[in-house]
Amino acid sequence: MRAFQTLRSQFVAVVAAAVILSNLSVVAILEIGREGDLQTARITAAVDRIAAVFRYVMTIPQEQREPAVAALSGNLFHYSIQSSPPFPGTSMTAEEQQLVSDLYAGERSGRFGPARVRLIEETGPLNNDETAFEIAQPFPNGDGWLTAQFTRPPAPSPAPAISIAALLGTILTGAAAAWLAGRVSRPLSALAYAADEVARGRIAPRLPDTGPDDIRHAAKAFNEMSDRVTRTLESHRQLLSAVGHDLRTPLAAMRITAEFVEDPEVRDRLTRNLDELQAMTEAVLSAARSGPGEEKRRVDLAALIESVCDDLVEMNLPVNVNIEGLAPLNCRPNEIRRAARNLIENAVRYGGCARVSLERGDGLFIVNVDDDGPGIPANRLDEVFEPFVRLEASRNNATGGSGLGLTLARSIAREHGGEIVLLNRMTEGQITGLRAQLRLPREQSRSRTDTAAPVPAEAFAT
Questions:
Q1: Structural domain contains residue 197
Q2: 3 state SS of 114
């Protein structure tokens, strides 16, 4: 259930369940003890009442005893006169002998005959049909036996006060658990938001180092880590940019020098090598400039991809596009254009052609770029995303690009909360081409990036 996937809901549910179980245990223990005390008090009162009845019946004339016994009988007490002992030949237990002593004490007379008591073994819950005990005592003149049967009343319901107290305790504890869980979950949410910003290459918001020691230390450690990561990324960008710019000058000089080489074969070989170095230098500069900077805005992804394909078609590249309808997306258009162009150019370079289409999945826009090349070995599908990795031997004998195209495309996709996925297209067990997918979330991209609601600093406050 989604309602119990958050830390706060799980914390409250566990605490509430523990409180309910503990309260039920306490109520059960108290009820068992209270029921025992009540039963003892009932039996004591019952024996006293039976003793008073026996004392009265023993003293009245014989002809009045039967009507008196019938009149004194009721739901819990039943009296009768029998001519013979009701349960002869049975020895009494210590508990039964104690009831006999209580009966004698209640009768306050030593002239009555010896009484007998029989406790009834209980086999189920207490109710009006179960006799608790039976007492028999002979009349002084030998005119028979007077017997009394006591039936226990039904067990009382649990004390309302205890139930109300347990319910109130559960509510108060649940409210306290919800407040405490909020104090834990809000800083974690702020920390997750800031970590996501760092992962996307942005400057993370500063987390206030306030609150409990654990939260304060975590916020301080994250701020220091964020500063170091930001400085490291910035230094890498500056280094790449400096190297790229510094390489342009010697490359230009080498290109001029190569024009004076008289041997055509050597001159062509030098020119090709210089072109490759130039392309790699431009790719390095593009990577250095790929950091965040462009503001997001809402565009039609379908129109954007079509414009990229139209530009490549004008360059006489074998690109076919089949996109219908609108695909509104909140993104940085120039970066998405660069990622799509890299995928399409790779398809043309390594697969001979590119067929571009757009799917609308469950919360996703998926740009498919298919080619007719030999595909990529399954064990190397992830390797091609590493910087400067080129698989010309596995896809095409021609020289490929700089090895940064897929790296930049995946970086851009992940900046937007999406991903680049490579899939080999199979027909009858044979690879018939490669499919590159640019997957971009439709609504999630808006909530996880620039348009996401900022986490307030109060999330870390006490």
A1: no
A2: coil
